[in-house]
Structures are given as structure tokens and as C-alpha cells.
Amino acid sequence: SYELTQPVSLSVALGQTARITCGGNNIGNKNVHWYQQKPGQAPLLVIYRNINRPSGIPERFSGSNSENTATLTISRAQVGDEADYYCQVWDSSANWVFGGGTKLTVL
Amino acid sequence: EVQLVESGGGLIQPGGSLRLSCAASGFTVSRNYMGWVRQAPGKGLEWVSAIYSGGATYHTDSVRGRFTISRDNLKNTLYLQMNSLRAEDTAVYYCARAPEGATGEFDFWGQGTLVTVSS
Questions:
Q1: Mean pLDDT, rounded, for B79-88
Q2: What is the mean pLDDT of residues A81-87?
Q3: B5 CB near a chain A CB, below 8 Å?
Q4: Are B9 and B82 in contact, with CB atoms under 8 Å apart?
Q5: Residues of A in Cβ contact (< 8 Å) with B112
Q6: Which of B49, B33, B16 is nearest to B99 (CA)?
């Protein structure tokens, strides 16, 4: 089966840049999607197919994917960005796979 | 406007059955890949089941043989039949749409329905 590895937690100072990583074997060859989930809410798509932002998602959110690591970058972090973030891919051996999630705290 | 509304969750004893529903509006379920994703209390997201636009169905190993995903094209509704429920199936269950197919993203999610398996 295919596994995705994310840091459990990440802290960033207000206004600084947060980079959340998602590790997987040759993940650079896959489409990676990122979701934001706030307490009590359903997940919200913030980046799809590695680098694309859905309508309504601020430009501060960006993505990259290369070799064995995909990264979600949140520039000029705001208190409202505090949430759990999940990466996700599709793999032929396991269908849809989610990372374990990263809890982002803005200090 | 795309909407997904789940229902059917509740408290059920181990070994029991439940059927979850996901009523869709604003798009056609049968023309999209659809999935169920669950989240156990305090845990991360876990894909459970999927149905492709062509009708093929897939389930994660832990539910295969116990859960069945299906759809009613006339009602534009997705279902998850859950049998032989276990305590570890306790979770919020979300339905979601993947319009670009298997390698694509889940672009819309329902609000979720809570399933609690306990005696």
C-alpha cells in the first residue's frame, strides 16, 4: 500500500510563511491535493493537482511537488489559517490515500 | 450550486447495520466519481469507498465485504450500506465528489453524518 507522511504539527509566527510537507515514494509522479479542515467542519479543498487553487482560495496558498515530497506553502500566515491540513493522492494499490494530517498553529 | 447532504447516521450496536445517504444537487451523481471518507473522533481522514462514473466500486480493506457503495440515478443520491458494524467504524462519514476522476481531487464535501457503534 502507499503511505503519505506529514508532520503532526507545525507552528508559524503571524505573517510568516508556513510550509507543510507530504512525503511519499515518488510522489512527484502523482497528483497531490491539499485540504484544510477547521474544527467541526468538513474538509475544504485548497490546492488541487499539485499547484492549482480553487476559486475563492487566497493566493497566499500555493503548492509544489517534486521527487519524494509535496509541499503546501501558506504565505503571510493569518490566525484564520489555523486548521488541520491533509494531503491526498490516488494510488493504484490503495485507491485514495490521505496523509495523517498536520495541525497548523499561528502564533 | 453544488450541494451534498448526508443523512442516516446514529447510534448502533456492534454487529448492526446502517444505510447512509448523500443527496446531491447541482450536478449529476452518475456522471462523477463519488466517494465516502470517514474521520474517527480526534483522528485523520480515511477513504472508505468509491463508485466510478462507469459503475465500478471499490472499498478500503477494512470494510470490504461489510460495506457497499451504490447510487440511485433517479434520486441523484449516493448510499453506503454498512453491515456487521464494529466499534472501530465509529466516525463522521463524509460523501465527496471527484469530478476529474480517480486521480483528481474531492472538490465538494457534505457536512458529514456521525455513526457511533457502541453497546
A1: 98
A2: 98
A3: no
A4: no
A5: 42
A6: B33
